[in-house]
Amino acid sequence: MPQAADGRETGPFVWTRDDGCVVSTDDARLDLDVVHGFLSTSYWAPGMPRAVLERGLRHSLNFGLYLPDGAQIGFARAITDRATYAYLSDVFVLDAHRGRGLGKFLIACVVACPALQGLRRFALMTRDAQTLYAPFGFGPFSGASTYMEIRDPQVYQRARDAEGWP
């Protein structure tokens, strides 16, 4: 397995469930039509242009969730320096495959990933999935009053406008 200068494994990493479902960090396996199709209609990234997604994927540790036949049915990504911090983002399992523990499997793989061990902080935001993440150690921000952001809810619309999208 490839290694960074500090000896840490860099991947790609693969985990397989008893039913043959797989989580992999191999970017070559990602089905960008599936990922973009879901994210661009999600409540947290509505209208995300594909070019923005592709740029974000290049700068993230990506986790694809696949059926035994190789079809992609889920996704997560960690925006990370792989040393001190990671932000878990864009987690989903397609509706038709929910209720089988696949989301838990996906998050278990993310949290177990060798490239994400020893981090000082591993953060995420969720509107409605706290019960999915809590068993893996995620909880409310310990210093919520220190959390700050610059938020731009129109950024994707401006990107589409700049590219000439309808």
Written account of the structure:
- The protein has helices spanning 32-39, 50-58, 102-112, 130-133, 155-162; strands at 14-16, 22-24, 61-66, 72-80, 85-93, 121-124.
- By secondary structure, it is of the alpha+beta class.
- The chain has a single domain, classed as Gcn5-related N-acetyltransferase (GNAT) (Aminopeptidase).
- It has a six-stranded mixed sheet with strand order 1-2-3-4-5-6, with helices on both faces.
- Strand 4 (72-80) and strand 5 (85-93) form a beta hairpin.
- 22% of the residues are buried.
Present the secondary structure layout:
Blueprint: E1 14-16, E2 22-24, H1 32-39, H2 50-58, E3 61-66, E4 72-80, E5 85-93, H3 102-112, E6 121-124, H4 130-133, H5 155-162
Parallel strand pairs: 5-6
Antiparallel strand pairs: 1-2, 2-3, 3-4, 4-5
Structure summarized in a few sentences:
With 166 residues, the protein is an alpha+beta fold. It has helices spanning 32-39, 50-58, 102-112, 130-133, 155-162, and strands at 14-16, 22-24, 61-66, 72-80, 85-93, 121-124.
Keywords:
166 residues; alpha+beta; Aminopeptidase; six-stranded mixed beta sheet; 24% helix
Query: From the 3D coordinates, which CATH architecture would you assign?
Result: 3-Layer(aba) Sandwich
- Estimated structural class: alpha+beta
For this structure, what is the CATH homologous superfamily? Gcn5-related N-acetyltransferase (GNAT)
Provide the spatial order of strands within the biggest beta sheet.
1-2-3-4-5-6
Integer count of domains: 1
Q: What's the total count of β strands?
A: 6
End-to-end C-alpha gap = 44 Å
CATH class: Alpha Beta
CATH topology-level name: Aminopeptidase
The residue ranges in which pLDDT falls below 50 over 5 or more consecutive positions are none
> Average pLDDT across residues?
90
Order of helices and strands: EEHHEEEHEHH
Number of helices: 5
Radius of gyration: 16 Å
